[in-house]
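Is coenzyme A placement plausible here? Inputs below.
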Amino acid sequence: MSLSSKEYRSSVILGVGSYVPDKILGNKELSLKVDTSDKWIQTRTGITERRIASIDRPTSDLAYEAARNAIADAKIEIDQIDLVIVATITPDMAFPSTACILQHRLGLGKVACFDLEAACSGFLYSLDVADGMLSSGRYKCALVIGAEKMSSIMDWQDRTTCVLFGDGAGAVILSAEGKGPELLGFRSGADGSNPTLLHQPAGGSSKPASKNTLANREHFLKMNGKEIFKSAVRVMEKATRELIAAHGLELSDVNHIIPHQANVRIVESMAHRLEIPLEKFFCNLDRHGNTSAASIPLALDEAVRNDLFVHGELVVMVAFGAGLTWSATLVRF
Ligand code: COA
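Reply from A.M.:
I modeled the complex. Tokens:
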């Protein structure tokens, strides 16, 4: 079997870390706020609880904790980091970037920092971008984070969305040198033809904040759940197949899959279509809900802490999100 689809050296993951706020919001407690039930949420989504950050804790705060954990895990000095990318759709503010805010808080040098917005695919897009920047030789060590305070854009009167999401952050240290799991390749794409399937209508330049946008609750996330569900299964299946084929592999060569943690029924449909046993899919969405860009690194960190991956195993991480965007990454542990 051939593995190489890159002409350049793969970057390696030196360390992984994550963080979730202490406050647990269970389905029962949620059903006191909005017309839903534990049974409906569990059977339709697989979610039992999610973490919610307090009002005084912005996304950079969650990112900070996850970054500290990843830096400690990587056992590197902080001044080795020369690139910071934060994937998020819930930045502290429109600008400056959450990455810049984080740079100062972490006491990093005056290194390159930016946010990347690809919704729930943002973390894998960021790995794709960071890997390219490291392979250029112009950067040596990247801190890549997925962090979200989804509770800040939830409409707590809309039962079709507020039961699905949670807050959290996950981070990795990527390096051009050293030993660790290798990023072998990527498959990222997007289809911008139907942006309103999943969006936050107001607050941007097309609909600046006004009394009307506030009254119409247009600063909250809006979603066509059924269409997103169908697209999610289709694009994650396609990205996984293409990624595996590009490396001259068979789907049966894949040891584990870390899918975007949105809905257990999406994961089951994907497993069915790929004819990959469900046991190969790592899920922690029951305890976190959908944490958007934080979902994959949060799951990755938990899988690593649980020693799920054996040396040499192949892991696919695959996500989809608003845009629509999608991205798949192949890692050799
Ligand atoms: N509690 C109780 N009932 C609810 C509910 C809730 N939280 N949310 C919706 N319902 C109701 C609906 O009003 C509808 O009632 P009706 O039949 O009387 O009209 C019924 O449940 C079925 O709704 P439906 O939308 O058909 O449910 P579904 O099986 O499609 O599940 C989602 C809804 C949102 C869970 C599912 O479509 C989904 O997960 N989509 C993908 C979302 C996603 O992943 N988004 C993030 C992308 S990164």
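Short version: The pocket of coenzyme A is lined by residues 36, 40-41, 44-45, 120, 159-160, 163, 198, 223, 225-226, 228-229, 232, 262-263, 290, 321 (CB under 6 Å).
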